[in-house]
Every structure is written in structure tokens, then in C-alpha cells.
Automatic annotation (TrEMBL):
Record flagged with keyword Iron: yes
Binding residues annotated for heme, in chain numbering: 43
Protein name (database record): Group III truncated hemoglobin
Domain of life: Bacteria
Pfam families: Bac_globin
Keyword Calcium among record annotations: no
Keyword annotations from UniProtKB, A to Z: Heme, Iron, Metal-binding, Transport
GO molecular function: heme binding; metal ion binding; oxygen binding
Phylogenetic classification of the source organism: Bacteria, Pseudomonadati, Bacteroidota, Sphingobacteriia, Sphingobacteriales
Natural source organism: Pedobacter aquae
Length: 138
């Protein structure tokens, strides 16, 4: 029986393993390595805080994920295929190590944030300069 996600160490294992796979993925690798040229020492602690806030209710993440990906999408279009790979790798990594209510929540949240992100990015009306996809789902 695998354990559930309960502590920051679990989040770190999930995030570290996810990015190990993502940087090698044909859909995603070049985005992290060549386009964003991610500084991992900077990015990984942000991602630990992000997922700790989503899954463990911790405070500490203060960024804006939607804005970050809007900016990224201006450098390289974030396609449906790229989002599918992102979601598949995330699901696979959760299932590799964890099971339980929080593990399920992690998968549900990842998919809903990814789908909302894709929707917002692709419903941005360039000509009007407004984001017609800005809908509240809460
Ligand atoms: C095609 C899908 C995606 C790609 C290629 C992608 C790529 C990236 C890149 C390159 C960064 C910037 C790293 C840096 O600081 O240099 C970033 C930041 C981030 N990503 Fe993604 N991402 C994707 C989807 C997602 C999804 C679905 C989520 C959430 C469920 C997410 C959460 C975040 C967060 C929280 C940050 C940090 C933003 C901040 O600076 O506060 N990403 N992503």
C-alpha cells in the first residue's frame, strides 16, 4: 500500500520526479531547457510552495501561475499536446508514489488548473486586448 501525500517531503518527491521526467519529454523538454532556460534552484522551491499551498493548505506561495504561462505562451505557443503531456506525467508521477484522498485531490486539481490555464491562454482575444476567457470557477 502506498502512502498518501501528507508532508512537504512528499511534495518535494512529487515535484522533483515530475520535472526529471518533464525535461526529457519530447513535448515539454525544449520549453523548459531552451525557451524558458529554467533556473532550477529558483524554480523548484517555488513549485514546492505552490503544491504545498494547494494540497496541504500552507501559506507561502505568492506568485501568479496564470500570468507566468501567459508570458511563456508569448515565447512559445503552449499547445494541447504539451498540456496533455504535462497532465499525463503529473498523473503518472502521483500514482508512482502515492495513493489516498490527497493524492486523488492532487490529480484532480492538476487537471482542473491545467484545463483552466489552457482555456484562458487560448481564449485571449489579441485584437480586443482583453481576456474573454477570464471566468471565475469558484
Ligand atoms: C504545457 C504545460 C506547461 C508548461 C510547458 C509549463 C512551463 C513552465 C515554465 C517554463 C515556468 C517558468 C519557470 C521559471 O521560473 O523559469 C513555469 C512556472 C510555473 N508553472 Fe508551469 N507549465 C505548464 C503547466 C503548468 C500547470 C498545469 C501548472 C499548475 C497545475 C503549472 C504551475 C506552474 C507554477 C506554479 C509556476 C511558477 C509561477 C511563479 O513564478 O509563481 N504549470 N511553468
Amino acid at each position: 500500500m502506498k502512502k498518501d501525500i501528507t508532508a512537504i517531503e512528499d511534495i518535494q518527491l512529487l515535484v522533483d520526479t515530475f520535472y526529471d521526467k518533464a525535461v526529457k519529454d519530447p513535448q515539454l523538454g525544449h520549453i523548459f531547457n531552451d525557451v524558458a532556460k529554467v533556473n532550477w534552484e529558483h524554480h523548484l522551491p517555488i513549485m514546492y510552495k505552490f503544491w504545498a499551498s494547494v494540497l496541504l493548505g500552507e501559506t507561502g506561495y505568492t506568485g501568479n501561475p496564470m500570468d507566468a504561462h501567459f508570458r511563456l505562451n508569448e515565447k512559445i505557443p503552449l499547445t494541447h499536446e504539451a498540456f496533455n503531456s504535462w497532465k499525463n506525467i503529473f498523473m503518472e508521477t502521483v500514482d508512482e508514489f502515492f495513493e489516498g484522498p490527497t493524492a486523488n485531490e492532487a490529480k484532480k486539481k492538476a487537471v482542473s488548473i491545467a484545463d483552466l490555464m489552457f482555456y484562458k491562454i487560448h481564449n485571449y482575444d489579441q485584437s480586443a486586448g482583453v481576456n474573454i476567457g477570464k471566468v471565475r470557477r469558484d
